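Deviation from plan, reported transparently: zinc ion complex.
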Amino acid sequence: MIYATDGTDRIQITNYNIEARCPKCGRFHEIDLIDILDETDTIDLASIKVFCPECSQRYMESEDM
Ligand SMILES: [Zn+2]
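Because the crystal trials were delayed, the predicted structure below was used instead.
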């Protein structure tokens, strides 16, 4: 089992309780960390940016223009 801690409390990390904060709109959204780590070559979790589905969709649509 893997846990996250803030120095006081611990919470078990599972495939279903990991969220990222969208760097565009600031909304928290659920992510699949295994997939993210599989698609990136960084080892710094703090540097990973994951856009929410809505901002990702807007970005994809703007790329189509
Ligand atoms: Zn967003």
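The chain has a mean pLDDT of 92. We consider this an acceptable substitute for the interim report.
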